[in-house]
Structure formats: structure tokens, C-alpha cells
Amino acid sequence: MELISKKENQMIFTAEIEESLANAIRRYINQIPVLAVDEVEISKNDSPLYDETIAHRIGLIPIKIDKTANTKIISKLKLDAKEEGMVYSDKLKGNLKVAYEKIPITTLNKGQELNIVAIVKRGKGEEHAKFSPGLMFYRNIVDIKLDKDCPKEVVDICPKKVFAFKGDKVVVKDSSKCDMCEACIEVCRKHKKNSIKIIPTKKLVIELESFGQINVENILKESVEILKKDLADISKKINK
């Protein structure tokens, strides 16, 4: 594995693994248990939005993971807003914390109120999207072969800026950015040339994004661990 870039909630790296395994890890992200608002009790809503709309918005606000919470323990967050203006997710108060404090919920005019009790539980992404901790997607790294007569237009036509000029010659600047859109090959066809060959390799570029409940490293680790556990269980059943 080779790390390409890492941000607070995003990680991009390369790995030489089978696509089937990468896809299994991607699917098992939705087996990681996380917290989300499951029920909403609205006692007062003077805002312009329907109760159902507010409940839907609150349900999709990411909640920071708390290891003490499980399927048998229900936590509650309360929201009491009276101030004029936008009501943000930081108004949800309790023993749990929201991942992002400035997610807009609704707006209030002078004299209006919003009173909510949000019931939080642990769940998995296979049950509902609100329990999904993040996303993973991947693509092949390719090997690009250029002939000497490669048209110069491919440098500007490539949306990922894979090509560059070295003097008057077209060269490959960064093949890892290529997503095989074949815009460069179409340019070659217009010139009736076969100057570019895009050859998939065994390496994948894998991108992980977290919705904020847990960090990206833990998403990868927990997905792999749950997959390994399920495979071990299957192996035991087969060997019986």
C-alpha cells in the first residue's frame, strides 16, 4: 500500500489487490455499527418546515461514535431553540456529540420555537443509509503507452490532466489520475492514429471518505476485521 493523500475525513492510497476483495471491503463498510437518530419527538414546531422534513434532516446528522452505546442502550439528544435565525445541529444537546456543528436544520422567526427530543441508537448501513459511516470507491491504475506521433490536443482534452508537454513532445505526467474516460483515444481516432494505449494494471487507487462518525483509518480497519470474522465463520461451517 502507498498513501497518496490524506485529509481529515478522506484518504487516498494505492494497493495491489483483486477487485473482488476491494469490493467486499467496500460492501462491509455497511456492516460497521454506528450511531444515528432513529426516532424524533417534536413537541413544538413553529418553523416553516413540516415535522417530517425536520425529522428527516435530524436523522441524517452524523453522530460521533461512542463505544459505550450499543443496541440495548438508547441515548437522547434534546433541541430547544427560541432564537431568531437558522437552527443548526449544534443545538442538539446530550451525552453524545454531533460530528458537524453547522448543519442547518430549519429557520425561526422572532417569537417562534422548536422543541425536539431525538432518540439515538446503534445500527448498520445495511438497515438504513443514516447508519452508514462513509464511502469507498476504487479504480484501476493504468499503464499508458504513447507513440511519437501522439496528437498534441490530448494534453488539453484530458479532464484529469494526465498528459503534459516536454518540449514539443507529449508525455505522461501522472498515469494514476487516469480514469479511462478515453477522451484522448477519441482525439487519436479523429487523426486516424492509434498513438495511445491504456493498459490496466493489477494496482487499484482506493479512496475512502468518512461521514464523520469515525475516522477513515478505523473505517478501513473495522470493515476488514468484520469481513475476516465472517469468512472465518463460513470456513468453520464448511469444515463441519
List keywords for this structure.
Gyrase A, domain 2, four-stranded antiparallel sheet, RNA Polymerase Alpha Subunit, Chain A, domain 2, 240 residues
Brief overview:
The protein is α+β, with helices and mostly antiparallel strands.
Q: Would you give an account of this structure?
A:
The chain is an alpha+beta fold and 240 residues long. The chain folds into two domains: 2-30 and 135-207, Gyrase A, domain 2; 34-129, RNA Polymerase Alpha Subunit, Chain A, domain 2 (Beta Complex). It is 23% helix and 37% strand. It has five helices and twelve strands. A four-stranded antiparallel β-sheet has the order 1-2-12-9. A hairpin with a 2-residue loop joins strand 10 and strand 11. Helix 1 (19-28) crosses helix 5. It is flat, with a radius of gyration of 25 Å. The two termini are 36 Å apart.
